[in-house]
Amino acid sequence: xxxxxxxxxxxxxxxDIWAMKYLPRFKWSNLTEKLAYDSAxxxxxxxxxxxxxxxxxxxxxxxxxxxxxxxxxxxxxxEKQSTSHKDTPVTAGEDKTDSMNSSKxxxxxxxxxxxxxxxxxxxxxxxxxFTQ
Length: 132
What we know:
Number of strands: 2
Strand order of the largest sheet: 1-2
Radius of gyration: 43 Å
Structural class: mainly alpha
Order of helices and strands: EEHHHH
Shape: rod-shaped
Helix content: 55-70%
Distance between the termini: 116 Å
């Protein structure tokens, strides 16, 4: 069904045609229901996308905060180690690596120092072990 929209002759819409097809058993409520459903689906998708973006943003911000905390801890440890190295003199029997590892492994340092104090093994015992 074609209907002329034209109003007066000088009107912009005078020669426009509005083409409609007659749909039997079609009600206006069917059209409004479809539009309402489409709108609800679009809103739901948008809400889901927003929650996903919010989760990603929060996760990123948490990771940034964790990284700041870890870097601050590392920096404090380095400062503490650098100040402790400046304060303690290094002896002839002790390496710098031993003094660096002293805070991490005190048992290993004690064992290394006690092994330096042991008496050397006599050469006759060593020769009897290796000649067999």
